[in-house]
Amino acid sequence: MAPFSLPPINDNPDGSWGPSSSNMPSEYKFREIPYAPYSKSDKLGRFADWYDGTGDSRNPTMGPSTTQGTRSGATRGRKEGNQTFGSGTASAFAYFHVEDESSFSLVDSKATAIRRGGPITRGRAQGRGSSTYNRGGQRGGNTRGGFQQRGGGQRGGPRRGWRDWDKGGRARESSVAINPSWPMLEEVEMIRLSKVRMEVDEPEDLGWYGRLFPYDKSYDRVNTKVERPLQAQDRIKYNITTSYDPVMQELAAKGVATVYITDNILSVLMCAPRSVLPWDIVVNREGNKVFFDKRDGGTFDTVTVNENAADPPLDPLPPNPNNPNEKAPEAPSINSATNLSLEATYINQNFGFQTVIEKSPPPAIDFERPNPFYGPEETEPMASCGYRYRVYDLGVVEGEDIRLCVRTEADAYTPGQGNPREGQGLVTIRALNEFDPRAAGAGGAPDWRTKLDTQRGAVVATEMKNNSCKLAKWAIQSILAGAELMKIGYISRTNPRDNTRHVILSTASYRPLDFASQLNVSLANGWGIIRAIVDLCMKHPEGKYVLVKDPNKPVIRLYSVPPNAFTEEDDEEGAEDLDEPEIVA
């Protein structure tokens, strides 16, 4: 019988399959060949393959490899519950190609859109069932320089317009230019602010200023069949920032509070998690006092439109500086975001001026002190407005002295509902505007003239969805002022293509607390946000800061800025640095 001897077996102390480099004999002929770990449960598809280390086979004629390490093999192993041993190890056999930029060239690989039934034409008349949009988002019959399709290119397909593919991913610009020299001190995500809570007691009244006119109840009977035109009113109403308020300066000198703010700014901070558009707030820390101010020309002087809609209104894209052959953009549409915001601001102001009774009876109510901003040199009549200064205690523990002084506003009072000087019967007046339910950015709003009287709930629900942040701010401002009623007018254009003439279709009354509950607004969360931001600002020394809402992310950031930032001196210095003067059309 022929002798038989067992081959030598080298034990692997690492416990894995395959040879070990520690006890491998020096005369082993495969010693210098790299080894890739494997598992005995791996399935072998082929014994040789062109493999680039990325998991994709180089051979287009063969099916995907099922060897361990490839994408399909690893996926199959996970599905079958097998151990993908060594799958995270970089392949020693991978081929790495050194990039040769000298031979690189950019090639346009975009496929040309093929239209059934004929070639794509430019400037062609709109056919039945088509939908075209110009650069500003306005819907129209013809679009200069734009592509037009019928029925979205396929039966039952979506209706596409000008640059619809770019609307969702278009980046917004910040509300204030961030100087690279400004150090960023804090960054807070909105999701964190939406979880804080704080209960605040009833406020203390410090004083009443101004004059209030009674609300005209005849506007409660307006409907779509009995419209009233919106008239431009020549009145003066002030929106002075905190630091320039003489009453705030007097109260700060007495040390009645730690934080000084207006209801406009306070409502924005309390509704920060709902905000989508960018905003910025200037913060001045003076000793142990903090002043929150709006910036001149900022976002606090206008009213937003459909901010929370899935497809909000957009402004036209600026020209591409890298493409000199690009045609200059057309004038912004009347349905662009900026023009709609200016239109909504005009409507809100004039609706509040028009819905009050200026001639007795009933008489106007003069508070204990006159309007602090209306000087003797003013000649235009003053609008109905009552300023109520109140103090809230933001202390959490016993003995903590953090008090917030806020200036609130009421627009009118309801006759026969008590004494307005004692905070009874106060009314705030706001207005929602309809521009064109068929235009881009309308947010799926129904036609108010056909649905407002019969399906008001659907109209209100759509507005709560598209303008969640704006309505929440209005509710909070009414609660801060102690108003008993909110009057919200529904105002539409006389002609959808004309943004200068409007009609009042209806007026609704809401109790602020009930309206905030319908919007799912939590006052406890709002006060928690305020306390968190105050603590954020009190962490840093005296100086000037700016709190900025990121234009494209749910994040707010705190920057330290020089003392002359956002002032006239700063603007003059910036203008001197320019090589050429700015030309404003």
Automatic annotation (TrEMBL):
GO cellular component terms listed in the entry, alphabetical order: eukaryotic 43S preinitiation complex; eukaryotic 48S preinitiation complex; eukaryotic translation initiation factor 3 complex
Biased composition (Pro residues): 313-322
Cross-referenced Pfam families: eIF-3_zeta
Region (RNA gate): 299-313
Residue numbers spanned by region Disordered: 1-26, 47-85, 117-174, 305-333, 566-585
Domain remark in the UniProt entry: The RNA gate region regulates mRNA cap recognition to prevent promiscuous mRNA-binding before assembly of eif3d into the full eukaryotic translation initiation factor 3 (eIF-3) complex.
Name of the featured protein: Eukaryotic translation initiation factor 3 subunit D
Organism whose genome encodes this protein: Thelephora terrestris
